[in-house]
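Worked Example 4.2. Read the sequence first, then its structure tokens.
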Amino acid sequence: MRGAAGAVTVLAPAKLTLSLRVTGVRPDGYHLLDAEMVTLDLADRLTFAPGRGVRVVDEVVGGLGTAAVPGGADNLVARALAAVGRRAAVEVVKRIPVGAGLGGGSADAAAVLRWAGVDDCAVAVSLGADVPFCLAGGRARVTGVGEGLSPLPFQERSFVLLIPPLVVPTPDVYRAWDARRAGDGAGPGTPDPHGNDLEAAALDVAPALARWRDLLGERTGRRPRLAGSGATWFVEGEPGELGLAGCEALVLDGLRAPLVAARTVPAPA
């Protein structure tokens, strides 16, 4: 589709959740959040051209692949097109890993809304809790089920992301959080001291995450934080100051987890 007459390309930047509290659960089962999110320079690229259909090009960092990207009507790009009543042939060049807690699907949906000129928060949140922030971008406090956005001053910050070869489904993590909250044999849900209430639940879903966290902590001398519902761990700083200069991945039991240096970017003008 690239180069076709009338084609338009839109970037879909990843989001990083710096802190996350689960403040409650609505009667309909949706979880209420209080989070700080920032936009990163790691981005998918969507090209819109006349026609219909969604094609995914796999350029995910570290060769982690796009096998977990839903197809058909369940694809978030297809859902976003339907939500705005538009039709297009869309090529999605994926660079944001799937199931990594970096909002790749939400970023793609937000890119569709930007292309369509839709800035209605109700439409955005109907597609997912992260979509309103991905549509706005920059840095913000995010509350409610994602619809509450309070912009915060932009800060230039650098991070190193460790992306284990794991897919951690967000619904599974919230179910584990619910189980902890109910005392379902896992103990009560308590705020995470490192700023992400979902970390313990994510470790229940994917216990191997703990070993990747510990490996990154040993290499950098810093306590890694979990991005959203996982599976990405991150530490703040440049690769050189973290002892990771020239290191493209960490290896555990023969498995490679890519290291990605990322910077914050401001909201679109």
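Now turn to a second chain, presented in exactly the same format:
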Amino acid sequence: MTDGKPLAGLSVVEFASLAPAPFACMMLADLGADVLRIDRPGGTGPGSVFGGEAPAEPEPPNPLTRGRRDLVADLKDPAARQTVGELLATADVLVEGFRPGVMERLGFGPQPCLARNPGLVYGRMTGWGQTGPLAGRAGHDINYLALSGALEPLGPADGPPLPPLNYVADFGGGGMLLAVGILAALHERARSGLGQVVDASMTEGAALMTGLLHGLAARGLWDRERGRNLFDGCAPFYSTYTCADGRFVAVGAVEPHFYAQLLHGLDPDLAGRIDPAQQFDQATWPTTKALLALAFAARPRDEWAEHFARTDACVSPVLSPWEAHEHPHNRSRGTFIEVDGQIQPGPAPRFSR
């Protein structure tokens, strides 16, 4: 039921693809849009990426495709093409996540679609963008991260860069960027009456997320060597630590008054052995980090979480995705929901009405 949701009444036609574009459409559906997902016979599932055969048992529902209506259509069949064309003639938004040229070859590129429906917002999700030397090349999250400059700073100083799963390019710099672009185009359409093409590139979305690093580097506040900076795990007050049970806590006590609470909460004697005034002196970081590591190793993770729960020391337990379901804060907010028997992240953000 979408009545009362911010995008109620918005009609979206999604051409089924993998990960980033479905994530954008999941967000639109969560916000109340009526999303019709057009899939090819045989479906678009994980097996099409990982090379597995179709499972004997039905697969569990995919959270990225929740909230949709589905239509299976063989776009080589003239009757199916006519049906899809009629749907697009009255839709508000089209979303596709194929390489450049695929939709044109299918006969549903921007030119004929916008000619028939001038108000259509045509959302395109690609890795490299619709133009440029790499536009037609294959790639995945890690490749877009690599070219955008977002991957190189990630990982330990003494090892290769480590990808943050596929969170950054596929979802943050991809699907979420596409959703923002679609909403912006809809806002502009309210003034002009015209739709347009939204060209969302995961490479550009990932690059967009490096804005802070560019700003810090320009001010001389970011060392271009990995593992020697404020937010990359080098700073003792912004890192993770191993606890007595082998699990971890995350520390983000950047501000001096939070840092003081961290030191006092770990061990009042630390305030005498660590000078809080030297918090940002990088020469002191290795020694300070060793002292903090020793202190955190004395107790299990959940004891530290409880110990710091009522302070502003910015200490949090590092939870697995499955543990996160049960954390009291997440439970109180309904951060995770159950759909068709499967626990998954719930819609966000929240609205007052």
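Notes for the reader: The mean pLDDT is 92. The CA atoms of residues 61 and 209 lie 31 Å apart.
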